[in-house]
């Protein structure tokens, strides 16, 4: 699964739903909804990659993860006119991909040695990583609004089965983030026209 699905949260959710005997439709919808945040990432990076040929955009899209977005977005903010920024994007994405595949292989090879691995709380590492990525982004109004809305919905709907509350939170967060981004863009156009 790791070779073709380069999305850790999707893999964890899919495996959890498979273990819970969820239907294929629920698994597909869950992974789709969880990955909607990548639409925001792609929209944020589009000004830097829109000029690239389709094969480049497809490859970079495949390599776009939370961690890669954090690194590449920071790079483009520091180097807004970088003509070769897509190579930086590619390098970051390939490094993350190689890391993911390497640790997947280590897990496959040595996972059985640690039969009670889930008792170590390693799943918390994913949460901490996501927090480390999200917190610096909260200085921007659309990201803050999206995070607050998603957090509120996730809390209110936390008792729904199959993590449906989390999925609803993602949809609401993406919607709020996109709405605030459009509103800010509209306000900037009005300011420029005035």
Q: Could you describe the 3D structure shown?
A:
This protein is mostly helical and 194 residues long. The protein has a domain of 31 residues. 74% of the residues lie in helices and 0% in strands. Helix 1 packs antiparallel against helix 2, helix 3 packs parallel to helix 5 and helix 5 runs antiparallel to helix 6.
Can you give the helix content as a percent range? Answer: over 70%
Broad structural category = mainly alpha
- Taken in chain order, the helices and strands follow as HHHHHHHHH
Strand portion, in percent?
under 5%
Through-space gap between termini: 53 Å
Poorly predicted ranges (pLDDT <50, ≥5 residues)?
none
Summarize model confidence as the mean pLDDT: 84
- Work out the radius of gyration: 18 Å
Work out the helix count: 9
**Overall strand count:** 0
Shape from CA axes?
Answer: globular
Q: What's the assembly state of these chains?
A: single chain
Keywords for this entry:
194 residues, globular, mainly alpha, 9 helices
Give the topology:
Blueprint: H1 8-19, H2 24-34, H3 37-49, H4 54-62, H5 66-78, H6 85-110, H7 124-137, H8 141-156, H9 164-193
Helix pairs in contact: 1-2, 3-5, 5-6, 8-9
């Amino acid at each position: 699964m790791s070779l073709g699905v380069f999305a850790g949260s999707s893999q964890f959710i899919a495996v959890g739903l498979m273990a819970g005997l969820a239907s294929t439709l629920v698994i597909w919808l869950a992974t789709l909804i969880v990955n909607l945040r990548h639409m925001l990432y792609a929209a944020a990076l589009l000004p830097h990659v829109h000029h690239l040929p389709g094969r480049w955009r497809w490859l970079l899209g495949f390599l776009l993860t939370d961690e890669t977005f954090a690194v590449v977005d920071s790079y483009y903010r520091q180097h807004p006119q970088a003509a070769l920024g897509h190579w930086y994007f590619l390098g970051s994405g390939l490094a993350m991909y190689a890391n993911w595949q390497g640790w997947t292989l280590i897990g496959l090879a040595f996972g059985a040695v640690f039969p009670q691995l889930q008792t170590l709380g390693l799943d918390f590492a994913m949460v901490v990583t996501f927090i480390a990525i999200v917190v610096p982004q909260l200085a921007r109004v659309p990201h803050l609004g999206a995070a607050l809305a998603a957090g509120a919905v996730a809390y209110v709907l936390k008792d729904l089965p199959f993590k449906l509350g989390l999925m609803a939170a993602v949809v609401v967060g993406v919607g709020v983030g996109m709405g605030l981004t459009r509103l800010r863009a509209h306000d900037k156009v009005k300011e420029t026209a005035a």
